[in-house]
Amino acid sequence: MTSFTKPGLPDVARVGEIIRAVAADEILPRYEKLERHEINEKHAGEIVTAADIASEAKLITALTDLLPGSVVVGEEGFSADPTIIEHLSRDAPVWIIDPLDGTRNFSEGRPMFAVIVALAMKGETQAGWIYDPLADDLLWGVAGEGTWDRAGRVRLPKAKRSITTMRGSVPSRPRAALEELGKAKGVPVPSDMVRLRCCGREYMELIRGNLDFALYGQLKAWDHAAGVLLHREAGGHSGRADDAKIYRPGPMREGRYILAADHDHWMVLRDLLAEALS
User: Fold this and answer.
1) In the chain, where does DSSP find H-type helix?
2) Nearest alpha carbon to residue 37 among 46, 26, 48
3) Where in the chain is the domain with CATH 3.40.190.80?
4) pLDDT of the residue at 3
5) Architecture of the structural domain at 12-154
Protein backbone atom coordinates (compact mmCIF):
# COMPACT_ATOMS: atom_id res chain seq x y z
CA MET A 1 0.00 0.00 0.00
CA THR A 2 1.36 3.41 -0.99
CA SER A 3 2.27 5.45 2.08
CA PHE A 4 2.79 9.19 2.35
CA THR A 5 4.76 11.28 4.77
CA LYS A 6 3.02 14.57 5.38
CA PRO A 7 3.37 16.79 8.45
CA GLY A 8 0.77 15.95 11.09
CA LEU A 9 -0.55 12.84 9.34
CA PRO A 10 -0.17 9.30 10.65
CA ASP A 11 1.05 6.46 8.46
CA VAL A 12 -1.61 6.08 5.76
CA ALA A 13 -0.93 2.39 5.27
CA ARG A 14 -1.29 1.71 8.98
CA VAL A 15 -4.75 3.30 9.01
CA GLY A 16 -5.79 1.00 6.19
CA GLU A 17 -4.51 -1.99 8.13
CA ILE A 18 -6.52 -0.93 11.19
CA ILE A 19 -9.72 -0.57 9.15
CA ARG A 20 -9.27 -3.99 7.55
CA ALA A 21 -8.56 -5.65 10.89
CA VAL A 22 -11.59 -4.11 12.59
CA ALA A 23 -13.86 -5.13 9.73
CA ALA A 24 -12.49 -8.69 9.89
CA ASP A 25 -13.08 -8.87 13.64
CA GLU A 26 -16.37 -7.05 14.10
CA ILE A 27 -18.25 -6.76 10.79
CA LEU A 28 -17.69 -9.79 8.60
CA PRO A 29 -18.36 -12.40 11.32
CA ARG A 30 -21.80 -10.82 11.86
CA TYR A 31 -22.78 -10.53 8.20
CA GLU A 32 -25.90 -12.62 7.57
CA LYS A 33 -25.65 -13.85 11.18
CA LEU A 34 -27.13 -10.98 13.20
CA GLU A 35 -29.40 -11.98 16.06
CA ARG A 36 -32.60 -10.01 16.62
CA HIS A 37 -31.21 -8.45 19.81
CA GLU A 38 -28.22 -7.14 17.82
CA ILE A 39 -30.43 -4.83 15.71
CA ASN A 40 -32.02 -1.77 17.31
CA GLU A 41 -33.70 1.43 16.17
CA LYS A 42 -31.74 4.47 17.26
CA HIS A 43 -34.27 6.99 15.92
CA ALA A 44 -37.05 7.09 13.36
CA GLY A 45 -36.07 5.30 10.20
CA GLU A 46 -32.50 4.47 11.25
CA ILE A 47 -31.12 1.36 12.86
CA VAL A 48 -27.89 0.42 14.58
CA THR A 49 -26.40 -3.04 14.92
CA ALA A 50 -23.88 -4.66 17.22
CA ALA A 51 -21.43 -4.50 14.31
CA ASP A 52 -21.71 -0.68 14.11
CA ILE A 53 -21.09 -0.25 17.81
CA ALA A 54 -18.22 -2.72 18.11
CA SER A 55 -16.55 -1.44 14.94
CA GLU A 56 -16.67 2.19 16.07
CA ALA A 57 -15.32 1.36 19.53
CA LYS A 58 -12.30 -0.49 18.12
CA LEU A 59 -11.61 2.16 15.50
CA ILE A 60 -11.68 4.91 18.12
CA THR A 61 -9.14 3.13 20.30
CA ALA A 62 -6.77 2.19 17.49
CA LEU A 63 -6.88 5.50 15.61
CA THR A 64 -6.48 7.78 18.61
CA ASP A 65 -3.57 5.61 19.79
CA LEU A 66 -2.03 6.01 16.33
CA LEU A 67 -2.34 9.81 16.45
CA PRO A 68 -1.94 11.09 20.04
CA GLY A 69 -3.99 14.20 20.77
CA SER A 70 -6.60 13.38 18.13
CA VAL A 71 -10.33 13.19 18.82
CA VAL A 72 -13.23 11.42 17.14
CA VAL A 73 -16.55 12.28 15.55
CA GLY A 74 -18.22 8.94 14.91
CA GLU A 75 -21.74 8.30 13.70
CA GLU A 76 -22.70 6.28 16.76
CA GLY A 77 -20.93 8.63 19.15
CA PHE A 78 -22.83 11.53 17.64
CA SER A 79 -26.12 9.70 18.15
CA ALA A 80 -25.31 9.49 21.85
CA ASP A 81 -23.85 13.00 22.17
CA PRO A 82 -24.46 15.46 19.31
CA THR A 83 -22.11 18.03 20.88
CA ILE A 84 -19.08 16.06 19.66
CA ILE A 85 -19.62 17.63 16.23
CA GLU A 86 -17.98 20.73 17.75
CA HIS A 87 -14.63 18.92 17.51
CA LEU A 88 -14.67 19.77 13.81
CA SER A 89 -14.32 23.48 14.56
CA ARG A 90 -11.45 23.08 17.04
CA ASP A 91 -7.70 22.66 16.66
CA ALA A 92 -7.19 18.97 17.49
CA PRO A 93 -7.01 16.51 14.57
CA VAL A 94 -10.38 14.78 14.14
CA TRP A 95 -11.06 11.25 12.99
CA ILE A 96 -14.45 11.14 11.28
CA ILE A 97 -15.82 7.61 11.35
CA ASP A 98 -18.73 5.75 9.83
CA PRO A 99 -18.05 2.33 11.32
CA LEU A 100 -20.56 0.55 9.09
CA ASP A 101 -22.06 2.62 6.29
CA GLY A 102 -25.12 0.95 4.78
CA THR A 103 -26.30 -0.52 8.07
CA ARG A 104 -29.74 -1.41 6.80
CA ASN A 105 -28.27 -3.22 3.79
CA PHE A 106 -25.97 -5.09 6.16
CA SER A 107 -28.81 -6.04 8.49
CA GLU A 108 -30.85 -7.36 5.55
CA GLY A 109 -27.97 -9.42 4.17
CA ARG A 110 -27.44 -7.14 1.18
CA PRO A 111 -23.78 -6.91 0.06
CA MET A 112 -23.68 -3.11 -0.12
CA PHE A 113 -21.88 -1.67 2.91
CA ALA A 114 -18.55 -0.06 3.75
CA VAL A 115 -16.35 1.44 6.43
CA ILE A 116 -15.52 5.14 6.00
CA VAL A 117 -12.77 7.02 7.83
CA ALA A 118 -11.52 10.57 7.29
CA LEU A 119 -8.97 12.70 9.08
CA ALA A 120 -9.69 16.43 9.30
CA MET A 121 -7.52 19.25 10.60
CA LYS A 122 -8.71 22.80 11.18
CA GLY A 123 -11.89 22.22 9.21
CA GLU A 124 -10.25 20.62 6.16
CA THR A 125 -10.24 16.95 5.22
CA GLN A 126 -6.63 15.83 4.91
CA ALA A 127 -7.00 12.11 4.27
CA GLY A 128 -9.71 9.54 3.65
CA TRP A 129 -10.26 5.78 3.45
CA ILE A 130 -13.25 3.81 2.16
CA TYR A 131 -13.27 0.04 2.57
CA ASP A 132 -15.54 -2.64 1.14
CA PRO A 133 -15.06 -5.58 3.54
CA LEU A 134 -16.68 -8.23 1.35
CA ALA A 135 -14.43 -7.49 -1.62
CA ASP A 136 -11.44 -6.54 0.57
CA ASP A 137 -11.29 -3.39 -1.56
CA LEU A 138 -9.72 -0.25 -0.07
CA LEU A 139 -9.55 3.24 -1.57
CA TRP A 140 -7.50 5.89 0.20
CA GLY A 141 -6.08 9.30 -0.48
CA VAL A 142 -4.32 12.33 0.93
CA ALA A 143 -5.02 15.93 0.03
CA GLY A 144 -2.70 16.89 -2.82
CA GLU A 145 -1.39 13.33 -3.22
CA GLY A 146 -4.15 11.63 -5.23
CA THR A 147 -6.47 8.68 -4.70
CA TRP A 148 -5.08 5.17 -4.59
CA ASP A 149 -5.93 1.50 -4.39
CA ARG A 150 -3.70 -1.55 -4.26
CA ALA A 151 -3.12 -1.40 -8.04
CA GLY A 152 -1.86 2.19 -7.94
CA ARG A 153 -3.22 5.67 -8.46
CA VAL A 154 -6.91 5.88 -9.38
CA ARG A 155 -8.23 8.49 -11.81
CA LEU A 156 -11.79 9.01 -12.98
CA PRO A 157 -12.36 7.84 -16.55
CA LYS A 158 -13.38 10.41 -19.16
CA ALA A 159 -16.96 11.52 -18.68
CA LYS A 160 -19.66 10.33 -21.05
CA ARG A 161 -20.76 13.02 -23.47
CA SER A 162 -24.51 12.60 -23.47
CA ILE A 163 -26.56 13.29 -20.35
CA THR A 164 -29.01 10.59 -21.43
CA THR A 165 -26.34 7.88 -21.21
CA MET A 166 -25.18 8.84 -17.73
CA ARG A 167 -25.77 6.71 -14.64
CA GLY A 168 -26.16 8.43 -11.31
CA SER A 169 -27.19 8.10 -7.69
CA VAL A 170 -30.26 10.26 -7.09
CA PRO A 171 -32.77 10.35 -4.19
CA SER A 172 -36.35 9.38 -4.95
CA ARG A 173 -37.91 12.88 -5.09
CA PRO A 174 -35.35 14.47 -7.47
CA ARG A 175 -35.37 11.27 -9.52
CA ALA A 176 -39.13 11.49 -9.98
CA ALA A 177 -38.84 15.19 -10.84
CA LEU A 178 -36.19 14.52 -13.46
CA GLU A 179 -38.20 11.70 -14.99
CA GLU A 180 -41.28 13.93 -15.14
CA LEU A 181 -39.26 16.72 -16.75
CA GLY A 182 -38.10 14.32 -19.42
CA LYS A 183 -41.62 13.09 -20.13
CA ALA A 184 -43.42 16.42 -19.96
CA LYS A 185 -40.97 18.64 -21.83
CA GLY A 186 -38.78 16.20 -23.72
CA VAL A 187 -35.71 17.48 -21.89
CA PRO A 188 -32.78 15.03 -22.05
CA VAL A 189 -32.33 13.47 -18.61
CA PRO A 190 -30.19 10.59 -17.31
CA SER A 191 -31.69 7.24 -18.21
CA ASP A 192 -30.23 5.26 -15.30
CA MET A 193 -30.79 6.65 -11.80
CA VAL A 194 -30.22 4.45 -8.77
CA ARG A 195 -29.63 4.61 -5.01
CA LEU A 196 -27.33 2.11 -3.32
CA ARG A 197 -28.26 3.15 0.24
CA CYS A 198 -24.56 3.30 1.08
CA CYS A 199 -22.62 6.52 0.52
CA GLY A 200 -19.27 4.81 0.84
CA ARG A 201 -20.01 2.33 -1.92
CA GLU A 202 -21.51 5.09 -4.07
CA TYR A 203 -18.28 7.07 -3.75
CA MET A 204 -16.30 3.99 -4.74
CA GLU A 205 -18.53 3.59 -7.80
CA LEU A 206 -18.10 7.28 -8.68
CA ILE A 207 -14.32 7.08 -8.42
CA ARG A 208 -14.14 3.92 -10.49
CA GLY A 209 -16.45 5.38 -13.17
CA ASN A 210 -19.35 3.01 -12.58
CA LEU A 211 -21.46 6.02 -11.56
CA ASP A 212 -21.15 9.24 -13.52
CA PHE A 213 -22.70 11.54 -10.95
CA ALA A 214 -24.42 11.69 -7.57
CA LEU A 215 -26.79 14.01 -5.78
CA TYR A 216 -27.04 14.28 -2.00
CA GLY A 217 -29.33 16.38 0.17
CA GLN A 218 -28.08 15.74 3.70
CA LEU A 219 -24.37 16.18 4.26
CA LYS A 220 -23.25 14.25 7.33
CA ALA A 221 -19.51 14.37 7.91
CA TRP A 222 -19.10 10.61 8.38
CA ASP A 223 -20.85 9.97 5.04
CA HIS A 224 -19.08 12.56 2.91
CA ALA A 225 -15.76 13.88 4.27
CA ALA A 226 -13.66 11.01 2.95
CA GLY A 227 -15.63 10.52 -0.26
CA VAL A 228 -15.52 14.13 -1.41
CA LEU A 229 -11.76 14.22 -0.87
CA LEU A 230 -11.14 10.95 -2.72
CA HIS A 231 -13.43 11.98 -5.59
CA ARG A 232 -11.64 15.31 -5.95
CA GLU A 233 -8.17 13.73 -5.75
CA ALA A 234 -9.21 11.28 -8.48
CA GLY A 235 -10.04 14.22 -10.77
CA GLY A 236 -13.76 14.69 -10.10
CA HIS A 237 -15.65 17.92 -9.53
CA SER A 238 -18.22 18.60 -6.85
CA GLY A 239 -19.96 21.46 -5.11
CA ARG A 240 -23.14 22.74 -3.57
CA ALA A 241 -25.81 23.54 -6.12
CA ASP A 242 -26.56 26.95 -4.61
CA ASP A 243 -23.04 28.41 -4.33
CA ALA A 244 -20.74 25.81 -5.97
CA LYS A 245 -18.64 25.53 -2.80
CA ILE A 246 -16.95 22.23 -2.07
CA TYR A 247 -17.95 20.30 1.02
CA ARG A 248 -16.02 20.89 4.24
CA PRO A 249 -16.73 18.72 7.28
CA GLY A 250 -19.00 20.32 9.86
CA PRO A 251 -22.53 20.14 11.23
CA MET A 252 -25.05 18.52 8.90
CA ARG A 253 -26.33 20.87 6.19
CA GLU A 254 -29.41 20.54 4.04
CA GLY A 255 -29.22 21.41 0.36
CA ARG A 256 -28.29 19.81 -2.92
CA TYR A 257 -24.69 18.66 -3.35
CA ILE A 258 -23.63 17.39 -6.78
CA LEU A 259 -20.65 15.26 -7.77
CA ALA A 260 -19.66 14.77 -11.40
CA ALA A 261 -16.65 13.74 -13.44
CA ASP A 262 -15.79 17.31 -14.45
CA HIS A 263 -16.95 20.92 -14.16
CA ASP A 264 -18.85 20.96 -17.45
CA HIS A 265 -20.99 17.97 -16.53
CA TRP A 266 -21.47 19.40 -13.05
CA MET A 267 -22.90 22.60 -14.57
CA VAL A 268 -25.26 20.67 -16.85
CA LEU A 269 -26.51 18.58 -13.95
CA ARG A 270 -26.96 21.61 -11.69
CA ASP A 271 -29.07 23.43 -14.28
CA LEU A 272 -31.09 20.31 -15.04
CA LEU A 273 -31.86 19.70 -11.38
CA ALA A 274 -32.79 23.34 -10.85
CA GLU A 275 -35.31 23.13 -13.71
CA ALA A 276 -36.73 19.81 -12.54
CA LEU A 277 -37.12 20.92 -8.91
CA SER A 278 -38.33 24.46 -9.53
Assistant:
1) 12-22, 50-66, 75-80, 103-107, 172-185, 199-208, 221-233, 263-277
2) 48
3) 163-277
4) 52
5) 2-Layer Sandwich (3.30)
